[in-house]
Amino acid sequence: MRFCRFDDNRLGLIEGDTVRDVTDAADILPDVRWPLPHGDLFLAHFDAVRTEMERLAANAPTRPVKDVKLLSPIANPDKIVAAPVNYQLHLDEARTDTGINFGSGVKTIAECGVFLKATSSLVGPGEGVVADWSDRRIDHELELAVVIGRKGFRISEDDALGHVAGYTMGLDMTIRGTEDRSYRKSLDTFTVLGPWVVTADELPDAGALDFELKVNGETRQKSNTRHLVFDVPKLIAVASKAYTLHPGDIILTGTPEGVAPVVPGDLMHAWFEGIGETEIRVRGA
Ligand code: MN
């Protein structure tokens, strides 16, 4: 299954180039009141809502995907976990390029572990990225994004994939500079997720996916997830050693070589084998 969120918080199923509006499936979600439980409500009840989406699909109205505004397919993640320098060639370029490292030594992922991005930075492809710090270099980082489906703490690598609901792609937008990663990567609109989530049953092996990011038609990043230094099971183990992972939590797995600046007006085109493709506009405000 491929599900998305679009327009005014509508829920969709993707079939080829069309989206089926199955928003009413969300009616089965429980009414919650303050204080809200941890985790994304939709993912926490995914089995039930999935059954309801499938039931409604046959009679659901359809729209061309190109005509809808794609939001982040996950509305309320508890956490956005991200992996730093998780491709060797990106580590090499980060150590070489002072425009990336700002004179500080770049540690390996084994040394620095994972970090967190503010959930308020999350948008979908249709919302675009705001790049309005004109005095600073703002880079794209295209990454495989893992969506957690089952709560877990201290998850072993062997058990890790059993906690994955599905996959999508993520842009971990970044201002280069001396500040901590969590600050430079948490500006509003600096986490783009989408265009939809492909459930894990449709993508049993995310460990060997080609992917590519173009800006204004020019290839900037092109790699394969087989080059991850810490693979998906290891990232889940490292993250959950520190904190409980909840349904809807996101893990951005790191970016390959080719990170480079974007400016307002640029059009990014992201493609992932087994997931799909989408366009993201860079705006000045
Ligand atoms: Mn990144």
What report would you give on this structure?
β18 and β19 (about 275-285) form a beta hairpin. Helix content is about 20%, strand content about 30%. It folds into two domains: about 1-70, FAH (SH3 type barrels); about 80-285, Fumarylacetoacetase-like, C-terminal domain (Fumarylacetoacetate hydrolase, domain 2, Alpha-Beta Complex), CATH 3.90.850.10. The radius of gyration is 18 Å and the shape is globular. The protein is built from eight helices and 19 strands. It is an alpha+beta fold. The protein has helices at about 40-45, 45-55, 90-95, 100, 110, 155-160, 180-185, 230-240; strands at about 1-5, 10-15, 20, 60-65, 70, 80, 115, 120-125, 130, 140, 140-150, 165-170, 175, 190-200, 210-215, 220-225, 250, 265-270, 275-285. The strands form three sheets. Strands 1, 2, 3, 4, 5, 6, 7, 8, 11, 12, 14 and 17 form a twelve-stranded mixed sheet that branches. A five-stranded mixed sheet has the order 9-19-18-15-16, with no helix packed on it. The longest helix is centred in the N-terminal third of the chain and has 12 residues, at about 45-55. The structure holds manganese (II) ion. Manganese (II) ion binds near residues 141 and 172. Manganese (II) ion (MN) binds next to loops.
